[in-house]
Amino acid sequence: MSKNPELSHEPEAEMRRLSRRSFVWAGVAAASAFGALRWLDTQDLNNGIPWPFRRALALNEKLARGYFRGYRLAPEFEGHATSDRTNGDIGLDGDVDEATHIIRVLGLHDMSRAVNHDDDKEAAVELTVSQIKAMPAVSMLTELKCIEGWSIFVQWKGARLADLIAKLGPATRSGRAPDVLNHPDDLLEFVGISTPDDAYYVGLDMAAALHPQTLLCYEMNGAPLTPEHGAPLRLVIPVKYGVKNIKRIGSIRFTSQRPKDYWAELGYDWYAGL
Ligand SMILES: Nc1nc2c(c(=O)[nH]1)N[C@H]1C(S)=C(S)[C@@H](COP(=O)(O)O)O[C@H]1N2
Ligand SMILES: [Mo]
């Protein structure tokens, strides 16, 4: 395994730098929250619960601290990404067109905007990649660790899955309207993410899905994601092994059942945490 010598590895300094940076990010996210709100209004996807400006800051802070009992921030690095490496092409057959690509979302508290074009499939709320790109963007240089024993350092750019979750409003255990900020424990426990053809799929617990470094990415090392790396949209979750970093996202489902997971079915640990 080759590590980039320019990357900083001193963990304490890393964490100090990180907390400063997280603070800056919280501000950046708050500054862009107005744009996100307008996205909601124009796209009319929200269930009518306003997401006040001041809450964006609180959300980032609270999510980064309280709810992630078992999770820490993965180290972030400064310097250059390492040379490229791809692994795994399950679910990546055929071409995708970013402009027409749809991410189907299931298991929201309010599914009244769900549509169904296909009798074989459940009705789902549909998102486009441009809607994800309109959300506050986060960049991070993190290590993608494959369970096979190698890793690469990648500069990612994307939107926080937590921000999307807060906006869309997953179904809750109580049946009451979701309050991601104050009552994340009331959200359904799991998130299942699949490729459009359902050939590759991962399950996440809600805490991992809400982790501030869990991103829906559309850029890698300063360039648009390539098809091998999961264009037009992939998950990057540096607190988990590579297997959970699903490429080419076709659907996201909030559920109370532990979702099926491609590699867990083959005997790997379902959590696959680092
Ligand atoms: N759709 C899909 N996503 C996937 C895989 C896959 O086979 N299909 N392989 C996983 C594995 S094992 C790893 S290590 C990472 C590798 O990501 P990369 O190819 O972008 O380096 O993708 C993950 N995501
Ligand atoms: Mo992997």
Short description:
The protein has 5 helices and 10 strands.
Keywords:
Sulfite Oxidase, Chain A, domain 2, 23% helix, five-stranded mixed sheet, alpha+beta, binds molybdenum atom, 274 residues, five-stranded antiparallel sheet, binds ligand MTE, 20% strand
Description:
The protein is of the alpha+beta class. The protein folds into 2 domains: 5-42; 60-266, Alpha-Beta Complex (Sulfite Oxidase, Chain A, domain 2). It is built from 5 helices and 10 strands. The protein has helices spanning 11-43, 53-65, 129-133, 161-168, 206-209, and strands at residues 102-106, 125-128, 137-145, 151-160, 190-194, 201-205, 215-220, 223-224, 234-236, 251-255. Strands 2-1-10-5-6 form a 5-stranded mixed beta sheet. Strands 3, 4, 7, 8 and 9 form a 5-stranded antiparallel beta sheet that branches. The structure holds ligand MTE and molybdenum atom. The ligand Nc1nc2c(c(=O)[nH]1)N[C@H]1C(S)=C(S)[C@@H](COP(=O)(O)O)O[C@H]1N2 binds next to loops.
